[in-house]
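I have been asked to look over a protein record a colleague put together. What it holds is a sequence and that sequence's fold in token form. Please read both lines and tell me whether the tokens look consistent with the sequence. I do not need a full report, just your reasoning and any doubts. This is what I was given:
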Amino acid sequence: MLLQILTYTHHLTTMLFGIFLSAFFLGVKQNKKNVCILLGGGAVSGLFFLICNTVFGSLFTEAVYPIFVHLPLFLLLVFYYRFRWLPSIISIMTAYLCCQFSNWAGIFALSLSGLDWVYYLVRIIVTVAVFAFLSRYLCQTTALLFAKSDRELYILGAMPFVYYVFDYSTTKFSMLLYSGNKVVVKFLAFAMCISYVIFLFVYFQEYELKNSAEQYGQLTNMQLNSLHSEIEQVRSSEHRMKILRHDMRHHLAAIQTFISQQEPERALDYIQEINKQYDDTVIHSFCRNELLNSVLSIYQTRFAENQIVFDVQIQTSQTLCCSEMTFCAILSNLLENAMHAVTKLPVEKRIVHLSIFEKGNHLLILQKNPASETPVFSNGIPVTTAKNHGIGVQSVIYYVEKEHGQYQFYMEGEDFVVRIIL
């Protein structure tokens, strides 16, 4: 009786381990709603497993396991959560690979004790422990990695795919793998699993360093370009001021003539025209923070080149209450995404609204732009199946969570809105 209970508990925990981890690896939020959805999918798959195991036996059930567990999970991730098919497959295979932690531990315990109930008990304990560790410390990493281009995903998915095919062909459809000692043979899978998890951590660290260097380089270039632009503006402003000072006597004489001829309206129009010329000599500064001002100046220039109206409201101090590099990286990604979105619209609809306010020890970013089409949301996050797209949103989420901030993406009428608090 005890052995039967442990056996079914092991099958249940292993199945839920794979279902939940596959979803969380892709970035599905670990909240109550998604837990219920995934539990529902697991209940359906578990029912099929139980029926199949009762009618046809365990050997046949394990062989067709991918049909009633992995296939429905793949369809759920692609059609409900709107993830691309390639990262969905890799995520499922990665979760399957991670099952080898408990598999090897259980076989090792069985070889020492010779008791089947010890094997299942150890597997259950290790499965729960590994799930708790990976869902807490690794899922944020994999969500960023699985959002990368297909070319990089092929590299990431090579090991899980090879092991998935190898394991099913040598243990489920045949018994080739078990021609020798089980502990020795299964240690290969255990070592592969360890290597892959380490690879993910190392790869992410390299990715983070590369991303930080790229962001630093981009922001440095922005500062240099902004400085060059400001120098040109100063030169142009000084030139226009010289002309205005030189012509001031002529302007005063013209105004005097209009007044003496009892034409005050023409005099006022003339004065307004002169004021407009003086306004053109004023160098615009968005805020007192140099790095933030440089980023805004660069995107104002880019928006002007693409005939985009840039409506900006900034209220910040000279020193930001969070990392300047992180804040400007978030802002650059938001403005870059907005620029790409509105350039698809007619010129008269191209406008980007940006508000940045500082209150207490927090910064609020509110960015709004019209959308050519309503984006698809998954768990409140816009997703896309377009090639080499969606990384900007994942980068924003990563940097916001790094600063322990909050983010919100939503539609307001025909406008796409992003609200961030840091």
Residues 285-422 form a domain with the Heat Shock Protein 90 fold (CATH 3.30.565.10). The longest helix spans residues 182-260. The two ends are 55 Å apart (CA to CA). The beta strands are 309-315, 351-359, 362-370, 376-378, 381-383, 406-412, 415-421.
